[in-house]
Design brief:
The protein is of the alpha/beta class. The protein folds into two domains: 197 residues, Lyase, Ornithine Decarboxylase, Chain A, domain 1, CATH 2.40.37.10; 182 residues, Alanine racemase (TIM Barrel). The chain contains twelve helices and 23 strands. The strands form four sheets. Strands 7, 16, 17, 18, 19, 20, 21, 22 and 23 form a nine-stranded mixed β-sheet that branches. It has an eight-stranded parallel beta barrel with strand order 8-9-10-11-12-13-14-15, surrounded by six helices. Helix 2 runs parallel beside helix 9 and helix 8 runs parallel beside helix 9. Lysine binds next to helix 11. Pathway: Amino-acid biosynthesis; L-lysine biosynthesis via DAP pathway; L-lysine from DL-2,6-diaminopimelate: step 1/1. Keywords: Amino-acid biosynthesis, Decarboxylase, Lyase, Lysine biosynthesis, Pyridoxal phosphate. It catalyses: meso-2,6-diaminopimelate + H(+) = L-lysine + CO2. Specifically catalyzes the decarboxylation of meso-diaminopimelate (meso-DAP) to L-lysine.
């Protein structure tokens, strides 16, 4: 008998098998729990991108982020192609690189024709270093420094202006102090649209630190239209992250087209509309996000029908997904260590990482699923709590995980860790950040080197007078 295990992996009696993936092209990565290339090999071990996960851990160490190139590329292609299919005007998908900003992920996204959304000088520097063309880079941020603004202007990237202070700073920088280049800017507006996601990752409601208040719209358009230093090309909004509902983005797109019409009334030639990101992914079996194709189609249709109704030309349509591009493409492999059973309460099984490599459970109470890579054929007999190794009681990665019987040395694989894991990782308790590899067709390449203890003290400075430690 074949049934579906809570991980979304099929199992036949005691045998777990990833879903048959002969029709990959039709599956939306954000609706899957595991990377598209996942298999169980003849030894009953987990394989991703043609690489045995336990062998990867032996080779590159533990914990290890494992990025499946095929899944990431497929998600990029589905976004890009859906816009081409459903939108009659020009379009551009940007990868919101805050999800995982590093050279390799930026380079893969760019090679699929995506632009990159960056939110700091550091992310901008990384995208430029990855070879991304500046005309496809968009800089966000609610408190960009003058240095970040100057770097953006000199690099020729588009700046998404967030507030009045930033507009004044831009006018001041251009021509007067640093440069005479005329930056391309977009205006970020807070649409006042509510969506059901965690409070910390909602950004589109009125009480948000991001963006201009729509009540100031006329004043903002009037100001920008009188500034020859600024080339205002478009409008931007983003309502939040890990969203499953379809309606909020449709409402947003319709509202934004109205704003386009308002901008035209001020003589602004605003031709780009960026509807942000936010499409959710499946972290657990009950999560039911729309597919990438459905999400894009709904937005394209509403922008087109509203433009027809308003008698406006179609803008260049942009969106900037992060999570739904990269989350499912990556898993984190940990080595299981000690365990502790508290009779009639729970069993804790500890791994060699935790809140420093995945701060999402402790920050947002996010839920994850896991499998044991070297026991894919073993029956599920245990319900355990997966704890990290940090000196913090809340350092729990998964509550009530259903696993086979585990022992120290087993390799636990947590799914869906490509977004907001490495990018939010810390050195809490002075744990070195793990390494990351990209896997494809049986080959694994290091993309982020594991930090060493020397790396951990690299920025430390011990004043001369404190060097004699013994009293
Ligand atoms: C401005 C902006 N754009 C894009 C994103 C990407 O969102 P997501 O990863 O949910 O697609 C975010 C994150 O919420 C954001 O703040
Ligand atoms: N860091 C959040 C998403 C925030 C997205 C950026 N505005 C998460 O892990 O879910």
């Amino acid at each position: 008998m074949v049934s579906t295990h809570p991980t979304g992996v099929q199992h036949t009696g005691t045998q777990y098998l990833p879903q048959k993936r002969s029709t990959n092209a039709n599956l939306s990565p954000n609706q899957e729990l595991l990377p598209m290339t996942t298999q169980v090999n003849s030894h009953g071990f987990l394989e991703i991108g043609g690489c045995d996960v336990t062998t990867l851990v032996q080779q590159f160490g533990s914990p290890l982020y494992i990025l499946d190139e095929e899944t990431l590329r497929l998600a990029c292609q589905q976004y890009r192609d859906a816009f081409r299919q459903y939108y009659k005007g020009e379009s551009q998908v940007l990868y919101a690189s805050k999800a995982w900003n590093c050279l390799t992920v930026c380079a893969i996204a760019a090679s699929e024709g995506l632009g990159i959304d960056v939110v700091s000088g550091g992310e901008l520097y990384t995208a430029l270093s990855a070879g991304v063309s500046p005309d496809k880079i968009y800089l966000h941020g609610n408190n960009k420094s003058r240095e970040e603004l100057a770097l953006a202007i000199q690099s020729g990237v588009t700046i998404v202006a967030d507030n009045w202070d930033e507009l004044h700073a831009l006018v001041d920088i251009v021509g007067t102090h640093v440069t005479s280049l005329r930056p391309r800017i977009m205006l970020r507006l807070t649409p006042g649209i509510e969506c059901h996601t965690h409070e910390y990752i909602r950004t589109g409601h009125l009480d948000s630190k991001f963006g201009f208040d729509p009540n100031d719209l006329d004043e903002v358009f009037a100001f920008v239209s009188q500034q020859p230093a600024l080339n205002c090309v478009g409008l931007h909004a983003h309502i939040g992250s890990q969203i499953f509902e379809r309606q909020p983005h449709q409402d947003l797109a319709a509202v934004m087209v109205q704003w386009l019409r308002d901008a035209a009334n001020y003589g602004l030639n605003v031709t780009e509309l960026n509807v942000g990101g936010g499409l959710g992914i499946k972290y657990i079996e009950s999560d039911d996000p729309p597919s990438i194709d459905e999400w894009v189609k709904a937005i394209c249709e509403i922008v087109q029908t509203t433009c027809v109704a308003e008698n406006l030309p179609l803008p260049k349509l942009l969106s900037e997904p992060g999570r739904s591009l990269v989350a499912t493409a990556c898993v984190t492999a940990y080595t299981i260590g000690s365990s502790k059973t508290i009779p009639e309460i729970r069993t804790y099984v500890a791994v060699d990482g935790g809140m420093s490599d995945n701060p999402r459970p402790i920050t947002y109470q996010s839920v994850y699923r896991a499998v044991v890579a070297n026991k894919m054929s073993a029956p599920l007999t245990e319900t355990v709590t997966i704890a990290g190794k940090h000196c913090e009681s809340g350092d729990i990665l998964i509550k009530n995980a259903q696993l086979p019987k585990t022992e120290p040395g087993d390799i636990l694989v947590v799914m869906g860790t490509g977004a907001y894991n490495y990018s939010m990782a810390s050195n809490y308790n002075r744990l070195p950040r793990p390494a990351a590899v990209v896997v494809a067709s049986g080959e694994a390449n290091l993309i982020l080197q594991r930090e060493t203890y020397e790396d951990l003290i690299r920025q430390d400075r011990l004043p001369e007078r404190l060097k004699k430690v013994e009293g």
